[in-house]
Amino acid sequence: MKSTHSRVHSHSHSHSSGHSHNSHSHKHSNKKDILADSYKKLKAGRAIVVGHAQHDMGSHDSIREAEYKGHKITIRTHYDIRVDNRALGGHVYVGNDGNVSTHAMPAYSFSSTVELVKQLIDSFPNKFRKRIRRSIRR
Amino acid sequence: MAVVRRNILSNSTVRDQYIEGVKLLKNDFLRPDWPNTYDIFVIWHFHSMMTQTPPNSGSGRNAAHRGPVFLPWHRWMLILFENHLQRVLNDSNFGLPYWNWAADGELTPFQQKKAAIWANNCMGGSGEPVTSGPFRAGQWQVNIEQGFTPGSMDPTLVSVRRPLRRALGSGFPPRLPTRTEVRNAVHKGAPNVIYDSPPWDVNSAGFRNELEGWPDGPRNHNRVHVWVGGDMGPATSPNDPIFYLNHCNVDRIWSGWQQIFHNPKYVPNSSASPSLRRHRLNDLLFPVTESAVFDPIYQGRVRPSNLLDISSRYTYDTLTDL
After folding, report:
1. Checking DSSP bridges between strand A82-83 and strand A86-87, what pairing results, if any?
2. Is the Cβ–Cβ distance between A98 and A116 less than 8 Å?
3. How far from each other are the two terminal CA atoms of chain A, in whole angstroms?
4. Rounded to whole angstroms, what are the CA distances from B25 to A122, B14, B81, B89?
5. What sign results for the dihedral spanned by CA atoms B266, B270, B275, B278?
6. What is the pLDDT of residue A31?
7. Which among B35, B49, B58 is the nearest to A35, CB-wise?
8. CA distance B55 to A51
9. Looking at the predicted structure, is the pLDDT value of residue B243 above 90?
10. Phi (first) and psi of residue B303, to 5 degrees
11. Is B321 exposed, middle or buried, given 0-12, 13-18 or 19+ CB atoms closer than 10 A?
């Protein structure tokens, strides 16, 4: 059996909240056994969070890049999405054809972000279950 | 000796072996501190999908999708899945079958949902939960599903115990890709075909992106995920055994493209930007472990360049429809 390789690398991750753009860097280690770690968490009833979802801080920007007649075009798109007045952060990616997509439905693309959110609600109704206020009368 | 991968509808022995094999993998444990072998592939797929390349990618390109590595990464996944099926079936000649979904795409939308692939003796039918066939409730259990970070649409993995879900005929328009669509993807730009091109993502011109299905999408591979729906929708889509039959057909189409056009070069090459790490010709692909217990073939260290000529491992029964 091959020995486990230890690799440490750093990367930067940029994200935005509102109109300010921030970036930070942090270190990841691949030393841990992804499978053993995942299995341990799942058995303990804990969620496994991977990649940039580990440090969600609201909405993120989609960046489109294209070249045209020697010009480089960069378009950064920021979404502020709310469902029932509650902020819904995360990554929405915009393609050069204007279609949008997101991690949670990786094979889907939509011509409208409204359609994307509608499909999220259809596919994951539990996530969007409304909190029902009940008045308790004694 | 190379095994032959066949259309699952043309060989009942292979069909039954596949059904038996995936069920055996659900109860196969390579190590006591790992999940069952079937679920390892679910976890691997999720981790790869949530690993952005580069980490601050604004395009959503990840370690297995939305970029050049889409085809080789899944080829590796299928080779290992096939290897574990051979082990639990004790049959080194077993070849992973494929579902030629474009043949069903020639049927009417109503007929597509009733096609032979969804018969009780094959993959079973639709429903939330699935109530017919070998993967119906009580016969197949989903142990891991997609959850969410609070306040976010970014997914997590969580533990569950529930039956399989499918919603055949989902998406708009509610139909599978057709043979013409597949042929258009294969022959686009012929004879000067290209595998991929800048910006190396969902906006790229080239065969990879056409087959993955982003331009004017969802098309081809993406459309199959959307059309099956249910557990084929999220990043945990390997939960449904139809996942491998879909991807085996995707791999077959890639093999056909390679053969028809005499092995067009894989791009980007090794000298491309470091921002394309995990996607370049000689980059290591994203592993879930380097343990030979899970990956006795490559020990988790494989590159696209190792996966371009697979003729010594497997062939397909036919490529003539491409």
Report:
1. antiparallel
2. no
3. 67
4. 31, 16, 9, 10
5. positive
6. 55
7. B35
8. 8
9. yes
10. -125, 155
11. middle
Which pLDDT does position B112 carry in this prediction? 98
Share of chain A above pLDDT 70, in %: 66
Average pLDDT (B142-163) is 93
For the ranges A110-114, B124-128, B141-145, B171-175, the lowest mean pLDDT is seen at B171-175
Which residue type, as a one-letter code, is found at position B116?
A
Are A89 and B151 within 8 A, CB to CB? yes
pLDDT higher than threshold 60 for residue A20: no
CB–CB contact A65 B199 (8 Å): yes
Which band of pLDDT confidence, cut at 50, 70 and 90, is reported for residue A135? Answer: low
Residue A100 contacts residue A109 (beta carbons within 8 Å): yes
Would you call B234 and A105 a contact, using CB atoms and an 8 Å cutoff?
Answer: yes
B269-278 confidence digits (pLDDT tens): 999 999 999 9
3-state secondary structure chain B: CCEEECECCCCHHHHHHHHHHHHHHHCCCCCCCCCCHHHHHHHHHHHHHCCECCCCCCCCCECCCCCCCHHHHHHHHHHHHHHHHHHHHCCCCCCCCECCHHHHCCCCHHHHHCCHHHCCCCCCCCECCECCCCCCCCCCCEEEEEEECCCECCEEEEEEEECCCECCCCCCCCCCCCHHHHHHHHHCCCCCCCCCCCCCCCCCCCHHHHHHCCCCCCCHHHHHHHHHCHHHCCCCHHHCCHHHHHHHHHHHHHHHHHHHCCCCCCCCCCCCCHHHCCCCCCCCCCCCCCCCCCCCCCCCCCCHHHCCCCCCCEEECCCCCC
Q: B142 has which bridge partners?
A: B162
Give Cα B25 distance to the centre of its chain: 17
Instruction: Give the highest mean pLDDT range of A80-89, B127-136, B149-158.
Output: B127-136
Nearest chain A CA: its distance from B49 CA (Å): 8
Inter-chain touch A106–B235, beta carbons under 8 Å = yes
**Three-state SS at A134:** coil
Q: Which residues of A touch B51 (CB under 8 A)?
A: 50-51
How crowded is residue B50: how many other Cβ atoms within 10 Å of its Cβ?
24
- Flag whether pLDDT at A138 surpasses 60: no
- Residue % of chain B over a pLDDT of 90: 94
Which pLDDT score is estimated for A17? 32
The Cα-based distances of B270 to B57, B177, B254, B277 in angstroms read 20, 34, 21, 9
**DSSP assignment letter at A96:** T
